[in-house]
Amino acid sequence: MSGSNAWSRSREKMRLFPELFAQCAGEAATYGKCVAASTTGRQELKKDMCAKEFEALKTCFTAAAKKKAK
Amino acid sequence: MSSGVCRRVLRAAGSWPAASSSASRSWITSPGCRLRCEPRRGMSASGGKGTMNVFNREMKKRQKNWAASLQDGDQYDYLRDEVGSRVADRVYDITRTFPLALDIGGGKSHIAEHISKDVVERLFLTDVSEKALKQTRRGEIPTHHVLADEEFLPFKENTFDLVVSSLSLHWINDLPGALKQINQVLKPDGVFIGAMVGGETLYELRCSLQLAEIEREGGFSPHVSPYTAVTDLGNLLGRAGFTMLTVDIDEVQVQYPGIIEVMTDLQGMGESNCAWNRRSLLHRDAILAAAAIYKEMYGNEDGSIPATFEILYMIGWKPHESQAKPAKRGSASVSFGDLSKISQPTNTNKS
Hints:
The structure holds two protein chains of two kinds. Chain A is mostly helical.
């Protein structure tokens, strides 16, 4: 469709995601492991169970996004 | 990234009841999983009247129109092309010429381009999206385009010799009713060959998103839509009046660089979720979390991630007296009790 709509705008922005995400591979793996661990053991996954790991991932991601924007 | 980024990105195509069987094997006990209370597609088979209303058909039409209007729309056709060719294969398996065929939800005509005009002489192609119909690929079969909803077929009874459908029936609300209509428009001894996604399709995406939302927000909403289980398909076809059923399942695994590519491609296929109970917003934190979980739990060695599509193929015939029937009761000349004796080879007396 010509012109921009919500779908095409969001797609534009999502295009950056893989690049930024790749810069935080370490943090992502740590967070992923934390969540994955809760699925195999006896404990149940709860809200904010991996909050610390996610914070690290988000900080890294936001930093990467800022760097990119400059 | 602004918050608008994550909005609407995920109307992913998908499934949910199926994922509970194997993908989530290990975490079926997590509290989130018990929250599942959405309608199951399978239920429509057992209910008296097919009054299920799971999907927003208007939304599906808009998604399909949007996808068809993409400049680079062809690059999202890989799955439809593959499944279309496999459906065409099944058409070739039947040694017949079909004077008049119908393709339901055919979109850009992914089946007919693999079929020669010696097999199908004339084709009607229906779709809900007028934009997809306009982009129909030119095959060698003379084709009439009809803008029609799969749920309401505008054809007379006993019209078609063959009805095909590829990757469109999984968005139908009243699947038993739709199959019944297909049966009606077929001539006696006509055949229906269909393919739809089902089973555990996209279980990786479903589970990643669920885990991410549980961890981030304390609960989850379905982003991947409900699917028909393969075990229900036989009953559905039988109830619709088909005989000599064949149902089989094919697993197609596509490797993607990351979760965003999975979702972008699904959107490009027009396969975004359109269930009524979907949440239109996927928080950006949840996307980030899901990307990490997807990669960690399902990722390949080389950093890519797989997405599984389970394609259910079904073949059913409209009854006709010429078709093979079970023998009459009491016409057996050998007792089943003697079966064990028959199967024994003659050289058993060597010891």
